[in-house]
TrEMBL record:
PROSITE patterns: THIOREDOXIN_2. PANTHER family: OS07G0260300 PROTEIN, THIOREDOXIN-DEPENDENT PEROXIREDOXIN. It comes from Halochromatium glycolicum. It comes from the Bacteria. This is Thioredoxin family protein. GO terms for molecular function: antioxidant activity; oxidoreductase activity. InterPro entries: AhpC/TSA, PRX-like1, Thioredoxin-like_sf, Thioredoxin_domain.
Length: 185
């Protein structure tokens, strides 16, 4: 397992559009997922210890961001042939078990992850209402283990600022996680 750190935020970069199947049986686009005050796009998977460490916090933050007018979506881009825990059926089970309040989508071709420039799980992309990138950082101090409950909620605070002002914070700490499991060419 290779651990990677996300690059710095490329402020203003437009969110790529997508059309992906969700575990709910519906096909979702970028605009379907966006809220009136922004969009949080999360590249996650089922097997990654970094994602498992923050899964409950992702759900908590997505619920709170929804109340601020920020929509959220989670996209799974790993190759499930090599990582069966990331299969579409297992995605359905994880979304149900953890009561995901956002669409959980399968990026089977991995084209969406490439369009966003996603490199790891979790990888967070926070957009303002104009769908311009304003945040590319970590959820909080958690790594493979969940950080203490009192740590700063970097992602939530940044997206709250984006919802209120349209601008993300200038100082952002990169997310860290497992590399996306790319298909062999």
């Amino acid at each position: 397992m290779v651990s990677l750190e996300t690059p710095v935020c490329d402020f203003g970069l437009k969110a790529p559009d997508f059309s992906l199947p969700g575990v709910d049986g519906r096909t979702w686009s970028r605009d379907d997922c966006a809220g009136p005050n922004g969009l949080l796009v999360m590249f996650i998977c089922n097997h990654c210890p970094y994602v498992k460490a923050v899964r409950e916090r992702i759900v908590r933050d997505a619920r709170e961001l929804m109340r601020l007018g920020v929509g959220s979506v989670a996209i799974m881009s790993n190759d499930p042939a090599d990582y069966p825990e990331d299969s579409f059926e297992n995605m359905k089970a994880v979304a149900l078990e953890h009561d995901f309040p956002f669409p959980y989508l399968m990026d089977e071709t991995q084209a969406v992850a490439k369009a966003f420039g996603a490199i790891c799980t979790p990888d967070f992309f926070g957009y303002n209402q104009a769908l311009e990138l304003q945040y590319r950082g970590r959820l909080d101090e958690s790594r493979k283990e969940t950080a203490p409950p009192e740590v700063r909620r970097d992602l939530f605070e940044a997206m709250k600022q984006v919802a209120e002002t349209g601008q993300g914070p200038q100082h952002q700490i990169p997310s860290i996680g497992c590399s996306i499991k790319w298909r062999e060419a």
